[in-house]
Amino acid sequence: MASCCRYSVLTFTLLCLCVFAILTVFFDYDHFNSFISFSSPTLESLGPKFELQRVIVSTSDQIRAVGLSGSIDDHQHLNRSTTIMRETKKRSREQALEQGLARARASIRSAAIVRIVSTASFKNDNDVPVGDVYRNPSAFYQSYMEMERRFKVYVYTEGELPIVHDGPCKDIYTIEGRFIHEMEHGAKRFRTNDPQRAHVYFMPFSVTWMVKYIYTPLSFDVSPLKQFVSDYVKVISTKYPFWNRTHGADHFMLACHDWGPHASKGNSLLYNNSIRVLCNANTSEGFNPRKDVSLPEISLKYGEPSPQLIHPPPRNDSRPHLSFFAGELHGPIRPHLLQHWKGRDDDMQVYEYLPKNKDYYSYMTQSKFCLCPSGYEVASPRIVEAIYSECVPVILSDNYVLPFSDVLRWEAFSVQVETREIPRLKEILMAIPEEKYRQLQEGVRVVRKHFMLNQPSKRFDMFHMILHSIWLRRINARPE
Ligand SMILES: *[C@@H]1O[C@H](CO)[C@@H](O)[C@H](O)[C@H]1NC(C)=O
Ligand SMILES: *[C@@H]1O[C@H](CO)[C@@H](O)[C@H](O)[C@H]1NC(C)=O
Ligand SMILES: *[C@@H]1O[C@H](CO)[C@@H](O)[C@H](O)[C@H]1NC(C)=O
Ligand SMILES: *[C@@H]1O[C@H](CO)[C@@H](O)[C@H](O)[C@H]1NC(C)=O
Ligand SMILES: *[C@@H]1O[C@H](CO)[C@@H](O)[C@H](O)[C@H]1NC(C)=O
């Protein structure tokens, strides 16, 4: 196993050298000079809402200096001024990038005050967010539009199959593969091949594939995963200036596997500074909602959701069951749930193993509430499945940062019950008035599109919502 790891590191180092050589010829040499003008945004320097994440060094004095010396007919001066001009060009490019973000931030801030998107002014846009499922529809809309207008992601080309540039596509961790593929082959609008023009840098490795290819089964030894991540950061931070420029703060990784957070410990700057997009968004395990992104877990065993979930029953069909859960005794919360409710009450359809003659998704589409307790990790694919089946999710987890909660008000389309209230679960659900239930279910219908994966991806779908969460971290804004 270890040799497999070394092999891939060696070969991707060679690949890097190759790419570097080509890039050096291809680009202006100055792309690879050091970036002295940036001060680094460590976590401490992440300011209040809407603050610039980086300090921009003014270059206007240098521009004036170039103008003056350019008029002097002296070779040495010309030579020097060429260098300064090159430096200035590079810096003003960085400055323009940051100024663009500052403008985006300002426009989001103004939109935030309005709170409601006037649909009249966006007649041609069917995607305008409306309703109380959004924290602030107009700020979200503005932020999304700014993202579409400006946001550029550079995807590192380093690394090779199977662990980099690919991920599972038919699995409980499917979002890893789907995101990587969409980013590398689909989202042309957001991808740039010029790292100078990027706002964020993506390291497209898959932790699920690391577990498959370089982890020794049953060893519970995650060090090969950490080593891989450490090597990867070493390669990109040596070959390119971008990592060192911000100590990784404008870089991101994405992992749905339970061990994503462990793998990210392979580099402490990655762990502390970078945007970690994780399903395992457990604040007790170092997930930091100010810089990290909570990733929805979605199980697509056959590459697509079950047709039953895609076409839930009409909204006024009655749902005979009050609530439903079926699942194994993983993690700390489910034992409580099963102990209190398994086989106890017809209103509470709670199973460890569903009887052979019963269908899981039929239960979801015929229940009013779908119970979503954490398993071994905080996230559960049940949340997305519940949303697909228009069953109101009941979140039973501790320390879980819910996906897209920067923009979505989960309380408008789900019920969150503290795990110590599990014995009172039926009472709590029965106490929700019919009118309130209808509002929650309507909320589920509104947010549904944000949890759909499409091929090709569509505006405001899951891929774009993930990207938007990253965009918010990069501009350091919360559209509330
Ligand atoms: C720059 O200076 C070098 C020597 O220092 C000289 O060979 C070269 O011709 C100069 N280039 C220009 C454009 O003046
Ligand atoms: C970035 O910093 C590391 C460690 O300080 C150093 O080894 C590496 O050469 C630097 N990268 C670049 C491109 O200068
Ligand atoms: C990362 O954070 C931990 C805990 O806050 C700290 O001990 C460690 O020194 C940090 N590492 C770096 C490289 O900043
Ligand atoms: C269900 O809703 C549809 C229209 O939305 C309506 O035509 C139908 O009568 C309703 N059925 C019941 C049983 O309320
Ligand atoms: C979240 O992290 C804490 C601390 O490690 C752990 O005790 C808890 O079990 C985790 N939650 C889940 C659902 O895994």
From TrEMBL:
Record-linked InterPro entries: Exostosin (IPR004263), Exostosin_GT47 (IPR040911)
UniProt subcellular location: Golgi apparatus membrane
Tagged with keyword Transferase: yes
Annotated membrane topology: Single-pass type II membrane protein
The name this protein goes by in its record: Exostosin GT47 domain-containing protein
Domain Exostosin GT47 span(s) in chain numbering: 148-431
Pfam family, one: Exostosin_GT47
Keyword Hydrolase carried by entry: no
Molecular function terms, GO-annotated: glycosyltransferase activity
TM annotation in the entry: 7-27
UniProt source species: Hibiscus trionum (Flower of an hour)
An annotated GO cellular component: Golgi membrane
PANTHER family: EXOSTOSIN HEPARAN SULFATE GLYCOSYLTRANSFERASE -RELATED, OS04G0109900 PROTEIN
Top-level division of the source organism's lineage: Eukaryota
UniProt keyword annotations, A-Z: Glycosyltransferase, Golgi apparatus, Membrane, Signal-anchor, Transferase, Transmembrane, Transmembrane helix
